[in-house]
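Appendix B, example 12.
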Amino acid sequence: MTYLLTQMFLYLLIAFLLGLLLGWLLWRYGQPTSGEIDAMRAENKRLRGDLDTCNTKTARLEAAASAPRAVPVAAPAPVAVAATPKPVTPKLAAPKPAPVAAPEVKAAKKPEGLKGPRSGKADELQLIHGVGPKMEKMLHGLGYYHFDQIANWTADEMVWVDNNLEGFKGRATRDKWQPQARMLAKD
């Protein structure tokens, strides 16, 4: 009888250890590897870049759609002929609309930048809506690495940044970077 109990105990112990091993293997290989995590991060950055491209195209199309267009002039209604003919006077072409004045450009002043990030680590500027990987590199190239730098820009400095973001003119004002940077700088 003790022989059977000992044998059952050994089989139960072996089954328990095999269950632990199998559970650990399933848990271990169910977790994403560092390579998979890096691939997901790269895909995330690519998708953010695509989103920025789409936002830029959308803004360009909206600006084109809101631009004034020439309104077609309707043909004059036919005139009934009177008993006595009236002299025909040639019609003059409609006057051309006056050119629209360009918007007044404020004096722009370049915000002070840094040679490199403080403490060797830049803030993740991509947390600001409208800043993707390409825009973040462009801002780093101009010397802007931290949220507090963007939060402290004056109105003149905002104009300078808007005019000097190559391919993204007006993005800083349109996407309201400063309020977002102020919130992120507090964290």
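The CA atoms of residues 81 and 88 lie 12 Å apart. Helices lie at 2-30, 34-66, 133-142, 147-151, 155-164, 171-174, 177-186.
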